[in-house]
Specification:
There is one protein chain. 5% of the residues lie in helices and 48% in strands. It is mostly beta strands. It has a 5-stranded mixed β-sheet, with no helix packed on it. The chain is globular, with a radius of gyration of 19 Å.
């Protein structure tokens, strides 16, 4: 668990970078601004060299520095084929997440995060899904107590000014109140990148990031602190 504390601390501390291709253009919505851009993701190939990935989806780009009310919509973190989908789910603090099990076997979703600790118990696809409300901003790793390979992250944000990249790495954050903010980009296995940004009314601001998949996601324990059968947490040594 101590390795998970180190891992999460490295994500809380932002890594500041210079802005790549920062520009502003007119936007039809005069009261608010819009942020667009591209995130390039680099992963290691079979010999360990970094190469631009074909699929750059799944990066969450978000603003910090102000709060908004959560959506009343319930987000889904699905259990299927012994995996969570998506592996990174952005929501706003106060929002509810449902955890449907679409496998014909039991799963036991849990988290021991100080941001939100919970244990949903065992249930399968014939059982109703279980819900959790995340009331505090932060990063919540989510596991299955039965299947150690099942890992996802709920990224609980201060506000709804966030976007998620498509396969080409493009993102859009619409209807942003004018002001100066910190903009962040992150996905699992990368170090969070952050920069200052100014949003002007009626303007489109373009900012681009580059992320490198060089971080390891540490192994974890079961909910009672024990090892999974046949699964050695060598990060504890």
């Amino acid at each position: 668990m101590k390795k998970w504390i180190i891992f999460l601390a490295s994500l809380i501390l932002p890594f500041w970078i210079s802005i790549i291709g920062y520009s502003q253009t007119s936007n039809h919505n005069k009261g608010y601004g819009k942020i667009t851009g591209t995130v390039k993701v680099f992963g290691k190939n079979f010999i360990g060299d970094l190469k631009e990935k074909d699929d750059m989806s799944g990066v969450v780009v978000y603003l910090t520095g102000f709060e908004t009310k959560p959506s009343k919509d319930v987000s889904n973190l699905v259990q299927q084929n012994k995996a969570f989908n998506p592996t990174l789910l952005p929501i706003v603090a106060g929002q509810t997440v449902s955890f449907p099990n679409r496998d014909g076997i039991y799963h036991n979703v849990f988290s021991v995060s100080p941001v939100k600790s919970f244990d949903l118990g065992q249930y399968k696809s014939t059982d109703p899904p279980k819900d959790i409300t995340f009331d505090k901003a932060g990063l919540v790793p989510v596991f299955c107590n039965i299947h150690p390979q099942m890992i996802s992250f709920v990224l609980v944000l201060e506000n709804n000014a966030f976007g998620k990249t498509d396969k080409e790495g493009k993102f859009v954050i619409p209807n942003v109140p004018p002001g100066r903010y910190t903009i962040n980009a992150w996905k699992p296995k990368t170090q969070r990148m952050s920069s200052d940004i100014e949003v002007l009314p009626g303007q489109e601001t373009v900012i681009n990031f580059e992320l490198k998949e060089v971080e390891k996601i540490p192994p974890h324990k079961r909910k009672d602190g024990s090892n999974y059968p046949g699964y050695q947490d060598d990060w504890e040594s």
